[in-house]
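Mods, move this if it's the wrong board.
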Amino acid sequence: MEQMTVTAKIQISVSGTDKVLLDNTLSVYRDACNYVSDYVFNTHDLKQFSLNKALYSNLRDKFNLKSQMAQS
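Not the wrong board. Structure tokens:
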């Protein structure tokens, strides 16, 4: 069975307060991703279970992320 990958490019249109909120959310998420990236670079740990155990609470506390964003 052959697998197919589909990629969609979309543009999100927001204005005013929503744009500020979206920009802030993306900025915090980017900072959290960099935090995880630094951890992985230093530890060479790529196992999702151990990353979750080591980082989940810190991501929630330090970056004030909701569960889904911290998990992803």
